[in-house]
Amino acid sequence: MDTLTWGEFKTQLQANPELHLQFQYEAGKFVDTSFHITEIKLAPIVSVDCGGVMNKWTEVIMQLWEPGEKQSERSMKVDKALSIIAVVEKMLPLDTAATVKIEFGNSQFDTRQMFPSMITAENDTLTVNLTPDFVQCKAQTRGGTCGTNEKGEECCTPAVAEKPKVQLKNLAVAAESCCTPGGGCC
Fold first, then answer.
1. pTM recorded for the entire structure
2. 140 and 146 in contact (C-beta within 8 Å)?
3. Rounded to whole angstroms, what are the CA distances from 127 to 1, 35, 65?
4. What is each CA distance from 83 to 73, 87, 122, 140, 162, in whole angstroms?
5. Rounded Cα distance, 113 and 62, in Å
6. Burial call 11-21: b when 16+ CB within 10 Å, e when fewer
7. Which of 11-20, 22-31, 55-64, 169-178 is least confident?
8. Residue 16 has pLDDT above 60, yes or no
């Protein structure tokens, strides 16, 4: 799946400032028209995968929130979203090459980060279709097999641990060292 960069996403918004912005998180299910853009996060990621390779990338995550009560029959216009982005970018320069994700959840849909995929302008609405994020094995995407080393051992297989040897101690105490009445130890 091809992901959009922050720069590509923002360019598509800038091309449609007068349209109403809407997000579809599942087929036929849209974020409520009263949604707010609550924050935009810049997330530099550094990881080491199962093959022992360090990976680095950056994500820009736009968080959407639905208020408890409906506040609007129409969603915000794209230019309002762009004004929120401008406020953020005055304080936090966002990497245009970063992968963009939309974070959303409500009482019927667990909060998750999704990729904006197809963005369509129809009538007076710009609809951003969201695709779920996915888990991947980076070693396999490089043609590897999940950390196989030169010995043929894979990092994802459980290691056979040697059982620790337990040393037993005699906790019985010699009779003469016990306290007895009149022995002076108490």
1. 0.75
2. yes
3. 19, 14, 17
4. 21, 6, 22, 41, 61
5. 9
6. ebbeebeebbb
7. 169-178
8. yes
